[in-house]
Amino acid sequence: MAKKSAINRDQKRRKLTAKFANKRAKLKAMTVDQSLSVDERFNAQLKLNELPRNSSKTRIHNRCELTGRSRSYYRKLRMSRIALRDLASRGQIPGMVKSSW
């Protein structure tokens, strides 16, 4: 089980990202737009820098839904390999069987 502080920190980042997503997208579009003047683009960049760092999508780290583990994470299943193996061994994932050869 991961530390509660790490799990809570990641949840906080996800909330901030959702809160500032529209504002951040508009400002990013303004900074790239060549039809705007250099001053307008620069001001948009300054406003973008004033937003909280944790509102950036790149600061989110995928974690297992069950254990909070950050490594060996399957995106499709939203869980780590260890949690997946545990559930599969207990027969709680339909269609998944232990392989043997």
From TrEMBL:
Keywords on record: Ribonucleoprotein, Ribosomal protein, RNA-binding, rRNA-binding
GO biological process terms on file: translation
Keyword Chloroplast: no
Subunit structure: Part of the 30S ribosomal subunit. Contacts proteins S3 and S10.
Protein name: Small ribosomal subunit protein uS14
Pfam families reported for this sequence: Ribosomal_S14
GO molecular-function terms, A-Z: rRNA binding; structural constituent of ribosome
Keyword RNA-binding applies: yes
Purpose of the protein: Binds 16S rRNA, required for the assembly of 30S particles and may also be responsible for determining the conformation of the 16S rRNA at the A site.
GO cellular component, one term: cytoplasm
Stated family: Belongs to the universal ribosomal protein uS14 family.
Gene: rpsN
The species this protein was found in: Parvibaculum sedimenti
